[in-house]
Structures are given as C-alpha cells and as structure tokens.
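User: Predict the structure for this protein chain, please.
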Amino acid sequence: MGFVSLKYDFAFKHLMSNEEVRKYFISDVLGIPVGEIRSVRLVSPFLWKRFMWQKQGILDIHLLLNDESKVNIELQIRAKKYWDKRAMFYLAKMFTEELVFGEDFSKLKKCVGISILDFDLNDSPEYHRVYRLRDKAGKDFTDILEVHIIELGKKLDGNRRLDDWIRLLNAEKEEDIAMIKTDNPGILEAMREVRIMGLGRSLRMLYEMRMKEIRDRKAEDDYVRDEGIAIGEARGERRKLISQVRKKVSKNVSPEETAALLEEDTALIGQIHGLIRAHPEWDDERICQELERG
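Assistant: Here is the predicted structure, written as structure tokens:
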C-alpha cells in the first residue's frame, strides 16, 4: 500500500471533501461542540470581485457553517513573504464579498481564517494561537473576524483534541498513522481516508507526479543557487582584480608589467588597463559589467 502525505494541497483538499472530517476538524479547532454543527458545506473557492481590476481571491477550502459563519482553511507548506498581509487580505475579501451596494451592514457574517503552517511564524511555543480585534486590555471589540494559526512543527502539549489532527498532518508513513490512538470519530474517518488515498491508483500517480515536480524544482533551485554563488564569487574576484589594476595605472605601470606582477593573463590586464584609461569616470562595477559584455 502506498502512502500519501496530507501536506500536499490535492491530498488535503481531498480529505476535506469528506463532510464528517470537516465537521470534526472545525469543532476541534474552533471549540464548537460537534452537536451544534449541523452542516459545514463547501462553497466556491473564488471570492467575488466588484471591479475587473481588483485582485481575485482564491481560498484553499471555503466553508459555510449552519449559522452562516464563513471559514477558510489554508495549508501552507513554505514560508511566504508578507504572509501576514496575504492572510488578512483573503480574510477581508471573504468578509466583504457578499455585501453589495446599498445593503445593510447587518448582512456581514463572522469570518474565520484557519492557517495550518508547516513553518514557524514566530518563536512562541504555542502551536495554536487565536487572534481577534481587541483593545490593549484584552477586551474584545468584536469577534466577527478571527484568525487561527496552527504551526505543525512545534512541540505538542499532548492534551488537546487538535493534537491528533497535527499528528495526522505530520504523518510521513503508515506507521505514523498507526501510532495515533484516538476515539475521535473525525480523526478515525480521516485516517480511513488517508489509507484509501494510498490505495487509489489515480491519486497515487498524481502524488508521485507532484513529488517528482517538487524534487525537480528543488534540483533546479539548487542549481540556480549554486550558479548564482559561483557567478557572485567570480564577479567579486574580477572587481578585486580591477581595483588592483587601477592602482597600477595610477602609478603609470604598463599593462605587461602589471600582468607580470599580478600573475594574470596579459590580454585581460591590457583590456582592463585600456578601459580604466579610456573611462576614468567609471567605477570598478561599471568596468566589470563592460568586461562581461565583451
């Protein structure tokens, strides 16, 4: 039997297509008794745009609870620049999307963003933090906007219902799933879904393709990074050489003598020597750029 990690978006979305899993996950994260959740239906992930030039919001998993509260669940594997602003952008879009011109503000519904991060957002040991609009004394201004941050890499307390969900999301092999001992119906259903995904040939092929894509991209990134380092080092050495030649030019040392003193190629030293004399206003970087073009 194969194993499909839930840290890949298609697998996580497939898991959340199960209503029972969605219901218990929301219950355990938001602290809502499961008996009070009649439905957690999936809605379109595309947020409405009032004008064509506005940025389109696309949510990972967009849910609507029975009290019409809206929830977005996002699984983020890699850290992104301006992640906090990005998260607030989508929460604000979700909050305002259904209020059209002339409608009463009473139509605005509570919006909750749940961000599951496979990286540490800060140094706090808390792996589940909840943010709302509060005053300096900690008194709520409103609970109509709520952000939940769940960090998968932090040490678990071991006594929260959320812990088993984190263990499940961190599972890398079947043995990790087997180690989860729980009576939570949502977790048990999620474990069953993970095992089914491991058996599904088409989903398994998709997973392998995604893994290959990620490995190839990493290899390309490593190559580009190494090439960039090599180019940067070579450019630094070239600028150092230009600086040395400039000092010899200021003392009227000939290109041939300079090449001999620096133990460098005569043709290259002659080229640098000529550029320095022809363009005394150019700095070392400008001459370096000219040599690269030539």
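Confidence is low (pLDDT under 50) at residues 46-59.
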